[in-house]
């Protein structure tokens, strides 16, 4: 019994920074519902305190040993802690910078904080996700909030155009990514955990098959959209031009950090036998993105 409690505490502590943000998000929602006068200063303070506590917990856990928790769905190590910390810092800087802009444009502050915190939670979970389903859910949590943020100024025609383009392109890229995951799921014998997927591909001797290559291409296309890599960057100028300035500051950093963490982990774990192929493809995309 004591061992079970110790394991539960250990597993829970791995996602404690995200849990703090979830609690803050719930508190903000409740206060916004029950309070007659919209006191945005208290909501602003709660969000900043939650982010500061989350960052402090990540720094406190810095030297802890790597652990895979929640039945293999979440992995914690020094690598993903760096990216989780960067996403939390991005939100911590974005919210204070947006206060004056939101006051001048008379937009609701509460919804903005909720969307930013939810996107932050999705991005932080994405950095440590160790399961195909968990990866997709965390990625969509981040993406859906990004769509809502880009269309935050709903009375602005440019913002409406930006969110429509972003939503359509994002839906297509998510579908392609899910299609790539389905190939890996089938070829590995029905596995979803990243380590078990590659073990399944080895056992079925499908790691160098054409199906695995199709899955690789679909994953590159899906994640390439999130990272705005050439030629999947057509949505970027319109969305950045039509979105509010604080939203652009957030979208230009947080989703890119989460996407970079995902692409680094997923390719190193799932495609160790195709290093030459995906290294070459990513090199071409990176060089093209820097030039164009």
Word description of this protein:
By secondary structure, the chain is mainly α. The chain has one domain (2-291). It is 78% helix and 2% strand. Strands 1-2 form a two-stranded antiparallel ribbon. α4 (78-105) runs antiparallel to α12 (254-270). It is globular, with a radius of gyration of 20 Å. Keywords: Chloroplast, Membrane, NAD, Plastid, Thylakoid, Translocase, Transmembrane, Transmembrane helix.
Short description:
By secondary structure, this protein is an all-alpha fold. The protein has helices at 2-14, 16-34, 40-60, 78-105, 109-128, 132-150, 157-187, 194-203, 210-226, 235-242, 245-251, 254-270, 275-291; strands at 67-69, 74-76.
Q: How do the strands of the widest beta sheet line up side by side?
A: 1-2
Question: What is the overall number of helices?
Answer: 13
**Residue share in β-strands:** under 5%
What's the N-to-C terminus distance?
59 Å
Rg over alpha carbons: 20 Å
Total number of beta strands: 2
C-alpha geometry: globular
Decide which structural class fits the backbone: mainly alpha
Largest sheet: 2 strands, antiparallel
Helix content: over 70%
Q: SSE order in H/E notation?
A: HHHEEHHHHHHHHHH
- Rounded average pLDDT: 83
* Sequence stretches where pLDDT stays below 50 over 5 or more residues: 1-9
Q: How many domains would you count in the coordinates?
A: 1
Keywords: Chloroplast, Membrane, NAD, Plastid, Thylakoid, Translocase, Transmembrane, Transmembrane helix
Protein name: NADH dehydrogenase subunit B
Pfam family, one: Proton_antipo_M
InterPro entries: ND/Mrp_TM (IPR001750), Ndh2_N (IPR045693)
